[in-house]
Design goal:
The chain is built from 12 helices and no strands. The protein is mainly α. Helix 5 packs parallel to helix 9. The longest helix has 21 residues. It is elongated.
Length: about 220
């Protein structure tokens, strides 16, 4: 059984861009030994191949162990459980996304207005999640884990920081959580696959939501 993650802080007050966090905790520390790193890469390569060939539903710890020619215990030691394995599969894309919104070119990265950055952030997040929707749905099935995961915390902190610049008098934590809810994989699945909406429509909706949230109309 995996160790419960620490509770999500009630309120975050980031004064600067957060440092990117890793998707999954690694039992042997941030710096893996060379052989451990090779084994991890081989396991993830096998898991990615299974996803491509058979779909996410058929990616089990047993299947990955067999595909990588290792014992099942090795997979459990490396990733903890199936959710940890699936989260690790999303790691590469997430790390690239984090680098882009933390230090990449504007409007996603620094240099644009906070509202323009929020617009760009949500549209990129929608595209990334849509491209790997089944994997996100499987990896994020445990809501309590999802909201306490490293990528969620990094994204949330980034959105909260931009909102604090744009609307400093707002309840930043609640507003940031509301915007983050729009980017949930389950909602994207419902809107695109069950309601037949295009990703372009979702992007337009995000643009409108951010504009209304961060640039409220003044009332006389």
């Amino acid at each position: 059984m995996s160790t419960p993650l620490p509770p999500f802080p009630k309120r975050q007050e980031p004064s600067e861009e957060p440092v990117p966090l890793e998707l999954t905790s690694r039992p042997d520390g941030p710096q893996l030994r060379a052989d451990a790193a090779r084994n991890r890469a081989r396991l993830l390569e096998a898991a990615a191949r299974l996803v491509a060939e058979h779909g996410v539903a058929n990616v089990t710890m047993d299947a990955v162990a067999c595909a990588a020619s290792v014992g099942k215990g090795t997979v459990f030691r490396r990733f903890g459980d199936r959710t940890g394995l699936l989260m690790a599969l999303l790691d590469h894309t997430e790390q690239q996304f984090q680098a882009a919104f933390l230090s990449g070119p504007p409007p996603l990265g620094p240099g644009a207005s906070p509202v323009d950055r929020l617009h760009a952030f949500g549209c990129r997040a929608l595209r990334l999640t849509s491209d790997q929707l089944d994997l996100h749905l499987a990896a994020e099935s445990d809501a309590s884990r999802r909201f306490n995961s490293a990528p969620y915390r990094v994204r949330f902190t980034h959105v909260a920081m931009l909102l604090r610049e744009a609307v400093p008098t707002a309840d930043i934590e609640l507003l940031a959580q509301t915007l983050m809810g729009y980017l949930e994989a389950a909602l994207i699945h419902h809107l695109t696959r069950q309601r037949g909406m295009t990703i372009e429509r979702l992007e337009a909706g995000w643009y409108d939501l951010v504009t209304r949230s961060a640039c409220p109309v003044e009332r006389g």
